[in-house]
Design a protein that fits this description.
This is Reverse transcriptase Ty1/copia-type domain-containing protein. It comes from Phytophthora fragariae. InterPro entries: DNA/RNA_pol_sf, RVT_2. By secondary structure, the chain is an alpha+beta fold. It folds into two domains: 122 residues, Alpha-Beta Plaits (2-Layer Sandwich), CATH 3.30.70; 68 residues, no CATH class. The protein is built from seven helices and eleven strands. Strands 4-5-6-7-1-8 form a six-stranded antiparallel β-sheet, sandwiched between helices. A hairpin with a 3-residue loop joins β10 and β11.
């Protein structure tokens, strides 16, 4: 997330709004490892021409299987193969990978720096000149990358850009969805994220939360899910709640009723 914010800062400094790129069906663009054989049964309704069956020496379709040649969603190596393809393509275009963040690439051509952030199949690009950023999208034709224009939503954050004031990031929609999911859609907001009484050192209660339960029952999994969502929001756009979120995160492995 720090690298994403850095790209936004550079976009503001250079007055070139960061652009959002998306690669549709990214995983199926990569080739499967040649040494790994994956075979599939024929899908229902698929008919193999008789001349093809004769050439293969089989009599009926049920004796045939298909060999997978490309990567496929659901394979455990799908993400790695896609990342290798994207990395190889970017290196071929003259980009170098950052030593401090493997998801950041940069390129300098004629003194013009272009910086790229990668999150699976979502790309965030800015540069010292708008023309260089536009040229980047034109060079990635083999991956069929979609230019979504200046970033308006990225990794669950709503992004707005003003030429005078710079970037504004918020997660209002994600927060409302989280409240709805945990039955707090009607909860009232407060001015401070934690009360003074919560700063006292407390001991863990002996009464542990249940591991399972029906609707309305607070379970270990629900607490872990809620705290995880809050940690993500604290890191992205709400650093003011970081301490308040830290308190319940101390015992997420074994939360108690007092938590």
């Amino acid at each position: 997330m720090s690298s994403v914010k850095l790209i936004f800062v550079l976009g503001r400094k250079w007055r070139v709004p960061a652009k959002h790129g998306d690669v549709p069906n990214a995983y199926v663009k990569a080739d499967k490892e040649a040494e790994l054989g994956i075979f599939l049964r024929l899908p229902r309704g698929m008919v193999i021409p008789e001349d093809v069956r004769k050439r293969l020496g089989v009599a009926i379709d049920s004796e045939l299987v298909l060999e997978l040649l490309k990567d496929l969603y659901g394979l455990k190596q799908a993400g790695r193969l896609w990342n290798q393809l994207l990395h190889k393509t970017l290196i071929k275009l003259g980009f170098a990978q950052s030593l401090t963040d493997m998801c950041v690439y940069y390129s300098r051509r004629g003194g013009v720096l272009v910086v790229l952030g990668v999150y699976v199949d979502d790309l965030l690009v800015t540069g010292m000149e708008q023309q260089a950023v536009d040229a980047f999208f034109g060079e990635l034709t083999e991956l069929s990358i979609k230019d979504l224009g200046p970033a308006s939503k990225f990794l669950g954050m709503r992004v707005s850009y003003n030429e005078d004031e710079g970037y504004d990031l918020d997660q209002e929609l994600a927060i409302k969805e989280m409240l709805r999911e945990h039955g707090m859609a009607s909860a009232h907001s407060v001015r401070t994220p934690i009360g003074a009484e919560s700063n006292e050192i407390d001991e863990a209660s002996d009464e542990l939360l249940p591991t399972s339960g029906g609707d309305g029952v607070v379970t270990v999994r629900k607490i872990q899910s809620l705290v995880g969502s809050l940690i993500c929001m604290a890191r992205c756009t709400r650093p003011d709640i970081a301490y308040a979120v830290h308190k319940p995160s101390r015992r997420t492995h074994s939360p108690t009723m007092s938590d």
